[in-house]
Amino acid sequence: MSRVSSKLASAVKCSDTFNADACMHCGVCTAVCPMGIEMLPRKLFRYVQVGLEDKVRENISTIYQCLLCGMCAENCPAEVNIADNVRFLRKYINENEFNLS
Amino acid sequence: MPLPTKDILGILADNLNQRKSVLPISNAAATRWSKGLDLPKGGKTVLYTGHLYQLIPIIDAMSGQMSKFENSPITKYFGLGRNVNKFINMTFFMGMMASKDEQKDYDRMLRNIALLLKKANIDFGYLYGEELYSGALVYDEGVDGSFAKHAQRVADMFKKNGVEKIITVDPHTTHTLRTVFPEFVKGFDVEVKSYLEVLAESGMEPDTQITDELSIHDSCVYARHENVVDQPRQLLAKTGAKLNEPRLCGKNTHCCGGPLESLFPSESHRIAGNRTEQLKESGGNVATMCPICLVSLRKAAKGSVKVNDLSDTLARAYGV
Ligand code: SF4
Ligand code: SF4
What we know:
The complex is a heterodimer. By secondary structure, chain A is mainly α. Chain A is globular and about 35 Å long. Chain A has helices spanning 6-14, 28-32, 40-49, 53-58, 60-65, 71-75, 82-96. Chain B folds into two domains: 5-199, no CATH class; 206-317, 3-Layer(aba) Sandwich (Rossmann fold), CATH 3.40.50.1860. By secondary structure, chain B is an alpha/beta fold. Chain B contains 15 helices and eight strands. Chain B has helices at 5-19, 27-31, 52-69, 78-87, 90-97, 100-119, 136-140, 144-160, 171-184, 195-202, 220-225, 230-237, 265-282, 291-301, 310-317; strands spanning 45-48, 125-126, 165-168, 191-194, 213-216, 242-244, 285-288, 307-309. The model of chain B has no long low-confidence stretch (mean pLDDT 90). In chain B, strands 2-1-3-4 form a four-stranded parallel sheet. In chain B, strands 6-5-7-8 form a four-stranded parallel sheet, sandwiched between helices. The relative contact order of chain B is 0.14. The chains are: A mainly alpha, B alpha/beta. Chain A binds chain B through residues 34-35, 60-61, 64-65, 67-71, 73-75, 87-95, 97-98, 100-101, and chain B through 2, 5-6, 9-10, 13, 139-146, 220, 224-225, 251-252, 254-255, 257, 259-260, 263-264, 267, 271, 274-275. The structure holds iron/sulfur cluster (2 copies). One iron/sulfur cluster is lined by residues 23-29, 41-42, 76-78, 80, 82 of chain A.
């Protein structure tokens, strides 16, 4: 069972960087990603939006493996700024898991 | 075990907080490139290196070590390393391991850039030992608190010196100052331009025609974030060099893999290998415009294709 974290959910709500609402699950981002990351917008960002913190924790490696190269956003038909969302998650993990700010 | 993300980020952030750089280097190493150029100290327009070119030989020496640690039991001790690093600047020792030839190589690229700007009649100075690292890496990794404090320090340094225009030499520093700083530093309104933009705008003409055939590698950050795509092409077109565009170029360029070097070296090398193959397909020597792209692709190419900084080619054609 995954637990919903109100901290994560409200961090997402208050943030002006995290925004993945427009994603329509087309898969273009994965198709063009040099790392072949398929997790980010279509799954992980959904988990984040509903505050599933365990899922974020399970995917720490993926979150730090993004190159922030921007190829995904360049080709996303819905203009989701994937790299900004990744940076938001890094910041959240740094502060809440790694005690770094 | 993969390299420990937490401890490595911790070391970078501690360094930035305590020593004002993710990988603090000596004044001598940061300013050695400028010897004999007689650049004025400071001024309204400054060439800001952001230390990235100077850091590459040191990062290279370190990453050789780190790759050996990846998947080795030693990763357990990185936490200890972070504690030691709080008292002793470990980068200093890594700096001693950096190759002298490589340092000369990267210093020359900075000299090229300064000489090209002089040749284009641009009036500029340099802040020498006062110059600070931009904080780019810490921003990318999302250590925002440390980054924000550092950004303010960097902005204060420019302000104290009365700087109104900044000329940058690499895409990461350009992006950090031009796009990220205004979000973190209140009232930061210094004009920031990459040397490629400044040279292209100057309308300078080459002295000689060259016959190089080049496969051009766009930096993700220049192309997608800072709209620097046409300027290097304009400058090269005048030189007579033959420009080959790889399958993925301009706004759709493929990353060099460099950003993963510190945390996931083997993934970084895999991406660099893929990109090198694409660049080889289009033919000619590879031309890069970022020191991180340069070192990543050079390592991946293992001598199978020449990889050079664009400034070397420009310096030759524009006679500096
Ligand atoms: S390309 Fe954009 S819309 Fe398509 S799945 Fe990725 S984030 Fe969603
Ligand atoms: S920014 Fe990250 S997710 Fe997007 S294409 Fe690059 S590596 Fe893949």
